[in-house]
């Protein structure tokens, strides 16, 4: 085999080596600040809640 010819297994080995050397973010680096309790209504909100569309008033 000459130097110009590439063995197929060599290419896959090179790909594996580049994958090993690639820098992936750690789980700590991926974390972002997320606001807690976003589903709660603000304390200053005094408006009444709208009627629940899933509640059935008359069961007859």
In helices, the fraction of residues equals: 25-40%
* Overall strand count: 0
Rough outline: elongated
User: How would you characterize the largest beta sheet?
Assistant: none
Order of helices and strands: HH
Radius of gyration: 30 Å
Mean model confidence by pLDDT: 71
Structural class label:
mainly alpha
SS field, number of helical segments: 2
Q: How much strand?
A: under 5%
The poorly predicted ranges are none
How far apart the termini lie comes to: 87 Å
Overview in brief:
Helices cover about 30% and strands about 0% of the residues. The chain contains two helices and no strands.
Report on the structure:
The protein is mainly alpha-helical. The protein has two helices and no strands. The mean pLDDT is 71.
